[in-house]
Each structure stands twice: as C-alpha cells, then as structure tokens.
Fold each of these.
Amino acid sequence: MYNLVVFISGNGTTLQSIIDAIDSGKLDANISLVVSNNPNAYGLQRARIANIDTYVIQSTSAVDTDEELFEVLEDYDIDLIVLAGYLRKIGLHLLNNYTIINTHPSLLPKFGGLGMYGMKVHTAVVEAKEKFTGPTVHFVNDKYDDGNIIKQTKIEVLPTDTPEDVSRKVQEVEKVQLIDVLNDFVKGVL
C-alpha cells in the first residue's frame, strides 16, 4: 500500500478530496497520518472521522518544528508527504529525508511565495487582470512555492470573475489534478 502523510493548517477540503478518492477506489493509497500546525483546524476532525491518526505540532520555531516532525514521522511508513493548505515552511531535515509535494492555487511562479495562499492568491490574480490561472502541484524545496513543477492546469479568468469565482474554478480543478498526480506516484510514474 502506498502511504501518504498529509499536512494541513485549516479546513481540510483538499484532505477530504484525498480521503474521498481513496474511499471510492480512485486512489490506491492510505493516509497514515494528518499533521497540523493549528489545533483548531477542521481538517483534524475530518481525519478523525475517517479514522486517520492526527498530530498537532507543539513547537513554535522552524528548527524545533523540523526536529519534532522528524521524530514523529519516524514511527510511520511514508512514501510521500502532501502539503494540502499547510502554511508553514518545511525544514531541511524533512526535505532531506522525504519526498514532499505541495498544491498551490496559482500557475507558479506567478502569485507564489510567503503569504500567498487562498483568497490572497485569487484576489491578486483578479487585480492583475490575468487571463488565466490554475492550480500547480510541485515538489517542495527550501523556498516557498519554488520547487520543480509536476503539473499545472490552466483555467480561463473572465473579466467579470470575482476572487470568489476564481477560487471556485481553481478548487474544482485543483482536487482532480492532485488525485491525478498522486496516482502517478502510486503507479511509479513520478
């Protein structure tokens, strides 16, 4: 079985899409653990409902968090770590020992980097009058949203679209794209 660990910070809608894909047989994988830096993240409840182990990060510094997570993850058989709305930078200890991917709601390298997440990204896309946007799945490195791109899906942005419209469009495609990428990992294509 292909084992995933999913890192979240909030609502966990992307986590839920992975859970649903596994439950429906569209993804032959297992989520071993869900990690959050936010003890109030609703995604933790989604994990508990699905009988998935959860872990809330205790450390506040980046260096301590990296060491803490490395110790926790040693107890799990991990093929891939998926950042699904996780808002902290990943430390070098984890980067050097695990394959980690992230899903981001823009066509990187545009609208990425520190502080660019969720509606902030969609608002920036609309304000820049972009004609296209879309989600990106990429490998994680030591810089925010900078790793090699695995897959992007282009979505048209209409002149009348609000940030909320763009968000809905991107989220629909983002979840499908992520499951496709995860299937490529499971099949050994990536």
Amino acid sequence: MLLLDTSAASEIMRRRPDALRRLRNEDPSRVWLCAPVAAEIHFGLSRLPDGSSRRGLLESEFRNLRTALRWIDWNESASRAFGRWKAFLQQRGTPIEDMDMAIASIALSLPARLATCNVRHFTRIDDLEVDDWSRQA
C-alpha cells in the first residue's frame, strides 16, 4: 500500500510527469489519501485568490484525486503511533511538525509506504517505509 503525503499529492495535482508516472505504476486500489493531507491541500488552495484559474484547476485536480483514491481517517492505531513517535523524536531532539507526524502515523497504522518529496523529515521514523518522490523514477 502507498499513502500520499501532501508534497506527493501536490505533485500529482500539478500534473508533474514523474509523479503521474509513479502513480500509474501503483495499483489504484492500494493508494490512499488521509485527512491531514486534505487539510494541508485545502489550506494551500485557500491561500490562492478566489476565482483564479490556478485555484480552480488545482481544486479540480484535488477532487479528481480524492475521487480516484481510497481514504483513511485518523484511528486509534495512528493515535498510538503518533504519541510514541512524537515523544521519541522530541526526546532525541529531532521532532517533526504535527501534520507530518500525523501523516506518518496513519501510514504506520495501515501499514503503507509513504510517498513524499520531504524525505528528510520522514526518515527520522525508523519504522516508516519512505518512497522518495523527490528523485526521478
């Protein structure tokens, strides 16, 4: 299984050839989106001017992505992973932002690989399999 983080979903929404190629190589029934990614996408879209063509295009692309992929909500397993890993990283002096921690926790709860362009943050979580979308496929 594969969970898209915000950076990977954004690359798909921008129709970047490499991201689209990577997505096509996955079984669509095994690719997931989650609420923290949607929240970050909606935040980014809300920062664009109402009625702008760019906002309209990206909103349309997100609707397409949301319709095509499976959805997972925050659950108890993700909550436990969040607490455990957030405490561990904080004690080690290498914390990551809460939204990234939430996305990683959901990937751990599936379990799924995490597709991201922000590898540096997510590789701090030893149990997480990170799929580096910052490199060309």
Amino acid sequence: MKADKRITSFDDHLDEQYGKIGTESRDEFQEEFETFKIGVLIQEARKKQHLTQQQLAEKVGTTKNYISRIENNASDIRLSTLMRIIREGLGGNLKLSMDI
C-alpha cells in the first residue's frame, strides 16, 4: 500500500512552518505554545471548579481582565502571580521542570 504523500507528521509540519528545532523562529513558536498551554490549564481548572473569572480574580487579589488576559495569552504573567493563582485561587500546586 502506497503512503499518501500529502500526509505529513506534526513535527514535519512544524519544521516547515516554523523552522527546525533550535532555530530562532521555532524557539519563539515553542515559547508561545507553552504560554498558551498555561492559560488553557488555568481556564480548565477554573471551569472545573465552577469559578468565574471574576471569582478567581477576587480570590487572588487581581482583576477579571487580568485573569482573562492570562487565559488567552499568559506571556507576561509573573511567576509569583501564577503561583498565587494556582495555590490560592485554584487550590493546587505548581510544578516546574527544565530541559537543558
């Protein structure tokens, strides 16, 4: 059976669209994707706990607008704020890892 030449792997797609791993454009994409994931994780946890953005904001001493910005693009969030949102607002713990 012949492979369909139009089908590519996701890694091949990323290589084509953003460059190979280690290039500036690919690194920038990966960084933006990680911040996107943080926002999605916060939003999913908030919704699972049946909290509105306003309620979460009040629990951590910030604004609804700030929570919305984090959920939609967490690129400028301070680590201390992220930890407060997760710990005080959502009752969780933040675990970090590094790939060096």
Amino acid sequence: MQRDKRSKKLVLVAHCILNQNSKVLGLAQHSSMIFELVNLLKEKDYGIVQMSCPELTFAGLLRWSQTQEQYDTPMFRQHCRKIAIQLVDQVIGYVKNGIKVSAIIGIEGSPSCGVTRTYMGYKGGNIEKARRSRKKLAEKPGIFIEELVSELEKRGLSISLYGLDETRIKQSIKEIALILES
C-alpha cells in the first residue's frame, strides 16, 4: 500500500467563498476570499473542493442581482442539476477511495447556495433598487442546494450542510468548527 501525507478529510464550499470576484457586482463583502473559513479549514487539515457557481456559469459575471424566485426556472434548475450530478460523481470517487467528505458549506442568502435561508420577493435587476427593496430572507434553501441534496439522496449519501452567514462571520465560523469536530 502506498503511503502519503493526505489528511483524507474534505469539504465542499460555495464558489464565492474562495473567489469573491464571482459575486454580483456590488455584493462582495470580502476583497478576495473569506479568509476566516479558509484559515479554519487549513488549521483543521481539510482539503477544499470549490463548487461551481451556478449563477456565474449560467448568467455570467455581469449578471444582475436576483432572488430565488427569479432563478427558479426550468432552465436554471436543469443547469443546477447538471452541476450537482457531476459534483456527486466526484464525491463518490473520493468516498470510494477512503476520503471523508465532512461538510458542504454554502452561503446564506444566496438564491443558489443558501442552505437554510435565501432571498425572496424582489422582481427586477437594478442593484440599488435591490438594496432598498422589500425582499425578505426566507427559511428555505437555494436552488442549487436543493438540487444537490436531491442528487445526494438519490445516491444514498448523507453529508452535513452548513450555510456560512457573512453578516455574522465569527459566529458562523465557530458553528462550522463544531460541525467539523463531530
């Protein structure tokens, strides 16, 4: 048996955690990445898989801010499902080779990658109007997370999900640390 130094521990993270440049213009809360989470994962010796951003790969970098309702179309769901299938194929490969996939970390509020909360209600594309709008944070997952969970369930896989809340980053990091220890 060949020996190497890999930790055999892995997490999957929303694309924008490692690349804030992928966010809708005006919505990035960090300069490049969310270092607090990256540092935690490094400290705990986790490998990181950066999930594709379905919004970026569907609508491009110059897309406007949309809510979960606006993205909830057959074409976008199909796009998310395709990404989810490819990702779960990758997860199965890791698991079959003795690597533990400990968590999937999304971004709360995201119409795609929100785990427990996503924005609903806004109908339009102007970023300034979006900030002033009456959109509400709904207690439901984003579309990509729904499709990913569905694909994981179809294949009999169970992986903890956690939504990183950028509005309370320190508390979120503490909560993720607890998940990774369990």
